[in-house]
From TrEMBL:
Keywords: DNA damage, DNA repair, DNA-binding, Glycosidase, Hydrolase, Lyase, Metal-binding, Multifunctional enzyme, Zinc, Zinc-finger. This is Formamidopyrimidine-DNA glycosylase. Transmembrane segments: none annotated. Residues 2-76 form the Formamidopyrimidine-DNA glycosylase catalytic domain. It holds the Pfam family zf-FPG_IleRS. The keyword Cytoplasm does not apply. GO terms for biological process: base-excision repair. One of its GO terms (molecular function) is damaged DNA binding. It catalyses: Hydrolysis of DNA containing ring-opened 7-methylguanine residues, releasing 2,6-diamino-4-hydroxy-5-(N-methyl)formamidopyrimidine. Its cofactor is Zn(2+).
Amino acid sequence: MPELPEVEALAAFLRENAVGRVVARADLAAVQAIKTFDPPLSALAGLEVTGAARHGKFLDLDVSGLHLVVHLARAGWLHWRTGLPAVPPKPGKGPLALRVHLAPSDSDPPAPGFDLTEQGTRKGLALHVVRSPSEVPGIARLGPDALEVDADTFARLLAGRSGQLKGALTDQTLLAGIGNAYSDEILHAARLSPFKMADKLTDDEVLRLHDAVRATLTDALQRQVGQQAATLKGEKRSGLQVHARTGLPCPVCGDTVREVSFADTSLQYCPTCQTGGKPLADRRMSKLLR
């Protein structure tokens, strides 16, 4: 799932490559992806792209005051293209959700643009055309940005949250921008169990966790901003210490990275670094190390 660093890097890529260009047309290929009808998607045609921004894990393309807001969900991505096909795509065929054609400039006659795609059968990618990003319900509910929250505010947020740390870090209404992968990385860096209760942390643990949030996300941003859209996924994978590394040695201590599986997701952790050497039970209600 694209998280804060990847979405910020995509916004930076669009600021460099799309801002200043005019939208020639937008072809919708996945009808279920569009969540708004006023303004219509067709209203973007003929307008200039004037900015690109991020709200949590939402990507926001400013098109002369209208906003194309995208949530890439679990398996969505943006692909920059040149020489896009003139024939509109057939709805419901393949992973394509939206194709945005941009008018060519004098310096690059092949018309550029981008595709928004989503792999797999479980579709969650969402498109909104709005006059203000705050009209998107998911944005209106966002908590403070994970990179902007200070240590005192962070401590207050956790103190008021009952539940496990993994769930707290990924709750977008509490803290915006962190998903499954970076929450694993942050908890590993902070040396904390994903099942520890958020409102039971000591002052030292809260400080370690806040430092880990900033360091993990900042490092990922520094590696990814400036990359081409096509290389961002690989750059993310290359920096992971525990997430998606089940069975491999922890790069910090050498212990084997373990996994806890749920119905539709999983988490990874290092027992030596995070749980005192004890493996967590492979179920959500584990009693270990709360």
